[in-house]
Amino acid sequence: MKIDFHTHVYPDRVALKTVSSVRERAGIDAYTDGTLEGLKRSMASAGIDLSVVAAVATKPEQVESIQRWLTAIRQPGIEALAAMHPAEPLSSEQMKMLRSEGFRGFKFHPDYQDFFADDPRMYPLYERVAAEGMFILFHGGMDRGLPHPVHATPKRLAAVHKVVPELCMIVAHLGGEEAYEETAVHLLGRNLYLDTSFVLRKMPVTFRERFLKEHPAERLVFASDSPWTDQREELQFLLQLPFLTESDKEKICFSNAARLLGLETPCRICEQIIASSCNSAPDAPNRV
């Protein structure tokens, strides 16, 4: 069984516009049409059983509608992270409710949400997330086409981990595209997760081998960043890496993500991989 821990989809009514906008801004290709059905077709081709959708609220007033949309698209084979904007953080009671509904974590993109990851004002929020037993998937490093400064450098994310070690952190893009030296110094080997999204096949081979060998296999998760890479190509590339053991590949492609999502038991896993039809929803995010 295979889990893709970091994907993006958009409502049908805005998917084409959103994908086109990101392609133009970032200068990258798209490998699906950005819709939920497009993701499901990609999963079938790739042999991926479960994809996790990550959405970012760029303004506090978007959180409610985005959360409704994320709740609506969850179905067997599709999981989602919850929405929150740090400018108006959720209360502990709201987090408890989300967790009772099956949401296990949040996606934060400090560049889009206009905060520095290690701003001390964020630490109480991080502590509340940790207290609820939830995690944060952080965008790591630069985002193509966005202006400087970079709000979530590996060094800043390492500072968060040092101050709030109880927070379960997943850092996307193996710490950050083109931030490999900084990641090696500040994040590699720490008790946090790195996901492989977007950079796996793009990063220099020496860094790729070092990262996947030196960071514990128990703290790596396979992710594609679909539609911005091809799920099938990313998964096959990872599975063919000769320096990873079969046990490593199983952890990276399945069991680590299953543990984070609370899907360790066979019945929960089976529920998630049974095919199901897509639900529609009214509002949705306009960013990756």
Note the main attributes of this structure.
288 residues, five-stranded parallel sheet, single chain, three-stranded parallel sheet, 41% helix, alpha/beta
- Our Rg estimate from Cα atoms comes to 17 Å
Q: Helix- and strand-based class?
A: alpha/beta
Cα(first) to Cα(last) distance is 26 Å
CATH fold category name: TIM Barrel
Biggest β-sheet, characterized? 5 strands, parallel
Shape: globular
* H-E string: EHHEHEHEHHEHEHEHEHHH
Please state how the strands of the largest beta sheet are arranged side by side. 4-5-6-7-8
CATH class wording: Alpha Beta
CATH superfamily: Metal-dependent hydrolases
Return the domain count: 1
Number of strands: 8
| CATH-defined architecture | Alpha-Beta Barrel
Spans of at least 5 consecutive residues whose pLDDT stays below 50 are: 272-288
Layout of helices and strands:
Elements: E1 3-7, H1 12-26, H2 36-46, E2 50-53, H3 63-73, E3 78-80, H4 92-100, E4 105-108, H5 110-113, H6 123-131, E5 135-138, H7 154-163, E6 168-171, H8 180-186, E7 193-195, H9 205-214, E8 220-221, H10 231-239, H11 246-260, H12 266-273
Parallel strand pairs: 1-2, 2-3, 4-5, 5-6, 6-7, 7-8
Give a written overview of the molecule.
This protein has one domain: TIM Barrel (Alpha-Beta Barrel), CATH 3.20.20.140. Helix 8 (180-186) links the parallel strand 6 and strand 7 (193-195). Helix content is 41%, strand content 10%. The chain has helices spanning 12-26, 36-46, 63-73, 92-100, 110-113, 123-131, 154-163, 180-186, 205-214, 231-239, 246-260, 266-273; strands spanning 3-7, 50-53, 78-80, 105-108, 135-138, 168-171, 193-195, 220-221. With 288 residues, the protein is α/β, with parallel strands linked by helices. The chain is built from twelve helices and eight strands.
